[in-house]
Amino acid sequence: MSPSATTATESGIVAPPDAPTKGGPSPVAPARFSDRSYTGPAQVLESAPASAGVLEVLLPGETHARRAEVALATPVPLPAGSRVLVTGGGDAEGVWVIGILETPERRLATRDGASAAVVSHETGETLEGRDPEGGLLFQYDPARGVTRVQVLEGDLELLAPMGEVTIAAGGGLHLQGRSIQLKTLSSVRILVHDLASRVLGSLGISRRGLDVKTAAVNVETGESHLVSTRTRIRAEEACVDAERVRTRARTVEVEAESLVERVGTLTRWVRDLAQLRAGRLRSIVTGSWISRSGRADLRSKDTFKVDGDRIHLG
Q: Does the N terminus or the C terminus of the chain have fewer Cβ atoms within 10 A?
């Protein structure tokens, strides 16, 4: 870009030092480069992309543009009218842009005041949308790779009445709220799979019931209640470890090929009839064996044998 002369106008970038201002601050004193360097503000005359690296700027008190090398750590597009911080020296020498003081907003607005604008920062530009009260609705920050949508008041709805809605994330997906509610006409299914898309576990809720498939289930709770019309448990092995187990039922049935009980003390109260049917019965008592009844009837079809050092009858 070749240097071009410019004079102050009411819509221009800068006013000459001897031009009066309307209700504003006095113009910046003219910059002098003949005998010393200058560090101070300047205004950009022409827009340039961030990758250009060269701008045309106008310094206070001058009428000719100067060539300015952009010396910013992060390239930022600077539109015409931006105020930048420059440093340099000598009439024939260029200057360097070392900072950004102010950039004009590129904004679109509706009649009710809602707007969208490109806002420049030291680290780059962001695209922002605001409501009529100035509240931030969305922000896109390409430097950070972050897009944010927010509604400070009111509701946010995502609707696809005739299609599907897909939310996909390469990392984690976080849902946070005072309450979370899922509504469906058919079913809800949660799948856990590996990188090869093989299902490792699943949780399904449908009209038929709850279906859980996983390698292990761990539940920790202070107190739990299960209310069921019918419950069935199938397992290769079941283990119950508790300080106390209490069972209350109208009828209890146990079917097993083998039943082994190991207890310290066994006490049973039978209100009506206790009946035992067995192919064979063997009772081994290390200590004493006491049997008391109001009436006793011992019968044997074959031999009835009583063997002891002493036998007391009557």
A: C
Output the CA torsion sign for 161, 164, 170, 172.
positive
pLDDT averaged over 10-residue windows placed end to end, the chain, 314 residues? 38 40 45 65 78 82 86 76 82 78 78 84 80 86 86 83 87 88 89 88 90 90 90 89 90 91 91 90 90 89 88 82
Per the CB < 8 A criterion, the answer to whether 173 and 167 are in contact is yes
Backbone dihedral angles phi then psi of residue 101, each to the nearest 5 degrees: -95, -40
Contacts of 253-260 with C-beta under 8 Å, sequence gap 24+, read: none
Q: Where are the domains of the chain?
A: 1-103, 106-149
Q: How crowded is residue 233: how many other Cβ atoms within 10 Å of its Cβ? A: 5
Domain 1-103: give its CATH code.
Answer: 2.40.50.140
Statement: the pTM of the whole predicted model exceeds 0.70: no
Distances (CA, A) of 297 to 262, 277, 293, 294, 300: 30, 16, 10, 10, 10
Q: Which residues pair with 249 in a beta bridge?
A: none
Question: β-strand 136-141 against 95-102: which pairing, if any?
Answer: unpaired
- In order of 62, 77, 105, 130, 186, the CA distances from 150 in angstroms are 46, 27, 21, 10, 31
The span from the CA of 67 to the CA of 42, in Å, is 12
C-alpha torsion sign, points 104, 105, 110, 111? negative
Alpha-carbon distance 201 to 249, whole Å? 35
106-109, strands of its sheet edge to edge = 106-109, 115-121, 124-130, 136-141, 146-149
